[in-house]
Amino acid sequence: MSLDNIQLPAILLQDLYTNALVDLKTENAHPAAVIAGNLSFLGENKKRVSIIVDHAEAIYLPDEELNFLLGILSACKLSMADVALLNRSKNPSLAYKDISEQLSAEKVLLFGIEPSMLELPLQFPHYQIQQYNNQVYLSSPTLKILGSNIEEKKKLWGCLKQVFTI
Q: Do residues 73 and 80 touch, judged by C-beta distance below 8 A?
């Protein structure tokens, strides 16, 4: 007897597959990538936190940097559902006004992005929490640099504790 020709009775198949393989309830489904206005971002933006990066070679972030970012978010008691991750190279005309108007961002984290790249009318150094336009801005080096430098991680963590009141 060959395993290729086994035939199971219908009653046994019914017992094996009691749950549907396809969920037809789609009203609660949320897409991973969302387009608000003309901005494409990853996440659901529930807590109005925008994270801006710049990676030409990835849609949002390379896997290693995304995992590092997820660790940062977890430490801040956030998840991808709470934030909007934007890649500036995929949104080339991105400006602070777009973030404010289309995403209603309250907090904006810049990883490897200079404020002038978003047409912000002010400059501020890394790890300086900056209030502007009813938003909180925090600039830091790229996630790749942060992932390999303990001192930079400590500086970022000190700022994140203030921004998110942890």
A: yes
